[in-house]
Amino acid sequence: MKQKPFNLISCRFSEAAAPKFNALGRLFPQLYVIAIDAYYHYSVTIRFGISGVPSIYLLHNGRPVAKYNKTEITLDGLAEFIKAFTLIEPYSSSTNESNPSLVVIESDSEGPLVIVIENRTNYLLVFSWIFCLIVVAYYSSRSTFFHKIKDHIRIMWNEAQTVNHEHAE
């Protein structure tokens, strides 16, 4: 199976959440743990109303049952979230019993979600900044403050030209 990076261009929040998300598959082997890149699959973001990443949903038959809605994503918080809605206890393969110590192990950082920050240009962001700067420049050029500055510079330029002509003769 080909591993895909778990990120949104350069999302440090997704990078921080990935090992904890990987650990969910280990702690809850009876559940399907799936990650979707919201940047490339925008129809999913529209369908579920995702406004930020990473967003973690608990789905049943393709419909959202609950959304993990905490500021900080922790493994303990994710396990409690799943336990509250499914009544499934986390499983530990090392001791073969329930109620394991909920820790992220080294293999959780290795996959299945690859944690890679992509440094590439976000052209939509660049276009947005250019548009904002053009709008600010346009409305600034129509303001009275801009006209006062322009007139002041023109007067100073004319005075400098007059002084320069007097010295030349």
From TrEMBL:
<protein>
    <submittedName>
        <fullName>Thioredoxin domain-containing protein 15-like protein</fullName>
    </submittedName>
</protein>
<dbReference type="GO" id="GO:0060271">
    <property type="term" value="P:cilium assembly"/>
</dbReference>
<dbReference type="InterPro" id="IPR042418">
    <property type="entry name" value="TXNDC15"/>
</dbReference>
<dbReference type="InterPro" id="IPR036249">
    <property type="entry name" value="Thioredoxin-like_sf"/>
</dbReference>
<dbReference type="GO" id="GO:0005929">
    <property type="term" value="C:cilium"/>
</dbReference>
